[in-house]
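Contributing new complexes? Match this layout with adenosine-5'-triphosphate.
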Amino acid sequence: MEELKRILVSETPEHIGETVKLCGWVSIRRDHGKLIFIELRDRSGKVQVVILPDHPEAALAAKEVRSEYAIEVTGLVKARPGKAENAEQATGSVEIEATSLQIISQPIEEPPIDVSNPELSLNLDTLLNHRTLTLRNDKVHSIFSLYALLLEAYAAACRKRGFLEVKTPKIVSAATEGGANFFKIQYFDREAFLAQSPQFYKQAGVSAFERVFEIGTVFRAEPHFTTRHVNEYTGLDAEMGFIGNFEDVMAELEGIMMEIVAVIGERGQTDLARYGAATPPVVAIPRIRLADAVEILKREYGKETEGEDIDSEGERMISEYVAKTYGSDFIFLTHYPTAIRPFYSMPNADDPKYTDTFDLLFRGIEIASGGQRIHEYQVLVDTIKKRGMDPEAFKDYLDIFKYGTPPHGGWGLGSERIIQKLLGLGSIKEAVLFPRDVKRLTP
Ligand code: ATP
Ligand code: MG
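Output block (do not edit by hand):
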């Protein structure tokens, strides 16, 4: 007989009446008298396998298996009564009547966590300590399916707009923006740092290729204990040349965000449903000056703001205000004070106390910072001096601007925060495969 090719669980409804081969993990085994039922899980979904006593070898093997055994099953696909209402239930419309069952890989011990439980209600530490196992849970799997969709959609949207994908170095020689949040590493006989932003390389990219984007690791040596910070995250960066002003940058980011929302809305419904989550409404993203936002917070919420920035509570409130006033889950806050933005930020032409920069907030937290950058060599040198820094220390960076660099701008967008807020996860760490925080370096 010809050897059967493995098919996926998701393909079983197309093979009713045929004998097929499946490979996967045992989610649950249930015994009902002489019948044994196995919920079999592969990368595409779950299906019920029934082992009847008239296949004694299969029945014998089935009696041995427990949760998380990797097995191979050959059997007949049979329709089950009842209609499927969505893709997830589609495989519930069939059942596999096993004619043979083989153990492919056997756990060395009973798993400490039952990952078949649809609601893995574990505390965050337990969830992360047992990450290799908890990643097998359906709901957890959904986080990373959506995360992959986000990366795919971001890259596709950038490419469509003429951005060239680049990868910039993560080992850098100098803590260029001021060194407090850099991790120091030993680099042969000298000291080096882990990049806390691809900023300077993106700008070099603009001066060569006009438009670049990067999906890359960002390291932050910040001792945060919050639900929205990790010390290693994945940045969705982009930088674009020949802009008219920073509104152009916001417009591009907005277009890309809306494309991501559309892709997730089209292809992520099964995963969103596991969290009772919905994609944000597609409406124009309001743009509000930071100073006006501060006023709104005072007026609407009686919130007093220190200086001219808003804290995380303020970000939550202004998001709430914008959601109820404009029906938008996003908001651009614009014109941040020069004093709280990096030296390369373009000062506003009307009032240089402010910059042509923005933050993008999503459901209460900052997900991106961006703006127009200074592109003129001498202006940069003067700005660096004015900030009490030494232009000599920025030599490599300044070289970018020596040979005709056009007006440009871009953004740094945090990938994990998008998924956190999309699904309403309590912590960003749930959206990181193996998160790194102040206390956690394993697994
Ligand atoms: P925050 O003020 O929230 O600490 P930031 O202003 O320091 O963030 P940026 O340097 O503007 O962060 O980085 C760009 C984006 O990268 C942020 O808007 C955020 O989405 C993401 N990001 C920054 N720091 C972290 C972090 N420690 N963990 C996860 N994502 C981060
Ligand atoms: Mg920021």
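Reviewers usually confirm one structural detail per submission. For this one: Residues 220, 222, 229-230, 233, 235, 366-369, 412, 414, 416-417, 428 surround adenosine-5'-triphosphate (ligand 1) (CB under 6 Å).
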